[in-house]
Amino acid sequence: MFVSVIVRSVRCFFSPYTFAIWFLLVLGAVVISPFGTYAPMSLETRAVFWAIIGAAGILLGHALHVICSRVMEQRHQITRATCETGLFTVLFSPFAYAMAVSMSDRLEAGVLTSARISFFVLIAAVMIRAMRRILQSDVVMENTGGALRPSGAALPPAPSVASPSPRLMRRLPDRVKGPILHLSARDHFVTVETPEGAYELRMRLRDAIDEMDNAEGLRTHRSHWVAEDAIVDARREEGRVVLVLKNGAEVPVSRKYRPDVEDSGLI
Questions:
Q1: What structural domains and CATH numbers belong to the chain?
Q2: Going along the chain, which residue ranges are E strands?
Q3: What are the C-alpha distances in Å from 224 to residues 180, 183, 207, 214, 234?
Q4: Do the Cβ atoms of 203 and 190 come closer than 8 Å?
Q5: Per-residue confidence in pLDDT tens, the chain, 267 aa
Q6: How far is CA 237 from CA 182, 234, 240, 252, in A?
Q7: CB-hemisphere CA count at 13 Å for 266?
Q8: Backbone angles phi, psi at 237, to 5 degrees
Q9: Is the peptide bond before 259 cis (omega within 30 degrees of 0)?
Q10: Whole-prediction pTM value?
């Protein structure tokens, strides 16, 4: 389990989105130089220090998120978030303190203490967790036109965005403009779901996914594939994870594919 968690955390770190966040955080920390690291550290030393701190924080945070999601699957989201934040603070604070002490012996007196480092790590962990929650809520609000809706309520079809059509579109009637939201398999048929309706094709799900070309999406179940842009919400129901799409459809997430969904930041 731990090996797979480490591998997934490394993959997540090197994704373009996460890597860009890491770069911006490091750049900001080098310029602002919190914890009194400006005077005692040269520019190069600060860059190395914050690059290591940022990378370690992202990797540890992602690993704890995956582990807590699996171990505390039946617990409320607030409980899991509290556990993640507490574990991150306990594990990361000594590392940050040791890094600061080892890279400079001229830190301002009274500025750097283990208690002070732990406090700032806790505040940073809470803020990052809150920002992540707000960003996820914004996605849902944006796709519902800013109106609150009951969980699972149907949504009006979203306007299609002009982009190269995947090859699978050629198998659908000419009147269908897309985009493709969801693929599901049953027997020897694949149901292709669009804002305009659902269409059945005689083919394997694996081949249908292959014909989606470079469309951003992920497998959530052995019988389901969803486009990332189509997802507006994620719910946990009695230990099950369900993704809610723009058109109100609900797609299950199986245990096998749940880590991939977690890596994408959807749950």
A1: 2-143 (no CATH), 167-263 (2.40.50.1020)
A2: 182-186, 189-194, 197-202, 217-221, 224-227, 231-237, 240-245, 250-253
A3: 13, 6, 13, 17, 15
A4: yes
A5: 566 667 666 776 777 767 888 888 889 888 887 766 666 677 888 888 889 988 888 888 878 877 876 676 556 667 877 888 889 999 998 888 888 777 765 555 445 677 878 888 888 788 776 765 554 444 334 333 444 334 344 444 444 444 568 999 999 988 888 789 999 998 889 999 998 888 999 999 999 999 998 788 999 999 999 999 888 888 887 778 889 888 888 899 998 888 888 877 776
A6: 21, 10, 5, 10
A7: 28
A8: -130, 105
A9: no
A10: 0.50
Q: Of 138, 133, 213, whose CA–CA distance to 178 is shortest?
A: 213
Q: Which amino acid is at 178?
A: G
40/183 Cα distance (integer angstroms): 57
Angle at 224 between CA 214 and CA 242, to 5 degrees: 110
Structure tokens belonging to residue 131: 């920002």
With beta carbons less than 8 A apart as the criterion, state whether 92 and 29 touch: no
Q: How far apart are CA 30 and CA 47, in angstroms?
A: 6
Contacts of 100 (CB under 8 A, 6+ apart): 35, 37, 49, 107, 112, 117
